[in-house]
Amino acid sequence: MTITGCNGSGKSSLIKLILGLVQPDTGELLLEGIPVRAGFPGAVRNHQIAYMAQQIEEMFFANTVREELSYGADGVLEKQGQVLAELGMNHFMDRTIESLSGGERQGLALAQFMIQEAPFLLLDEPSSYLDQSRADRLKDFMMQAHRSGKTILHVTQYTQEISWGTHHIDLDQTDPKVRSI
């Protein structure tokens, strides 16, 4: 599903609700029948949600690409290598995070995201800094993930990315409706 809307339409608020970063004013949000509670994002911690943030600067904890990819990545070394090669980043392993360009950091965030095995994928403006080849790879990954049964919520302000989802909600409409694409 692709969610679009201009600044201030509620895209980021929706993401914060799903992640459990804020509490809804009324009602409750369920993820696979389990209420999402405000506080630490339990669904991310329990690998139910793979999240790719718009602000990638906040996502990295290590000094080098190798260290960053090894963080919490038990048993996925082969998949890491495959994903990095697909993104043209396999020669970045010994570079520091600080030395990466904005697009390279976005590529690293994309690699980390693609390596995860969560059933629910949440992407917030994921192509902001990607070059066209990596954006195309992201689109292919999303389509493949959908075919494998994963649920994907893709938030974007780029109209050309609307077709990346199976359904579309435009939060700029006075009465937003889910539309099949």
What's the quick description here?
With 181 residues, the protein is α/β, with parallel strands linked by helices.
Describe the protein's architecture and organization.
It is a single chain. Helices cover 33% and strands 15% of the residues. With 181 residues, the chain is α/β, with parallel strands linked by helices. A six-stranded mixed beta sheet has the order 4-5-6-1-7-8, with helices on both faces. Strands 2-3 form a two-stranded antiparallel ribbon. Strand 2 and strand 3 form a beta hairpin. Helix 4 packs across helix 5. 29% of the residues are buried.
Provide tags for this entry:
six-stranded mixed sheet, 6 helices, globular, alpha/beta
Can you give the helix content as a percent range?
Answer: 25-40%
Q: Describe the biggest sheet?
A: 6 strands, mixed
Q: Give the beta-strand count.
A: 8
What does the overall shape look like?
Answer: globular
Round the Cα radius of gyration to an integer and report it.
16 Å
Average pLDDT, all residues:
82
The first-to-last residue Cα distance is 9 Å
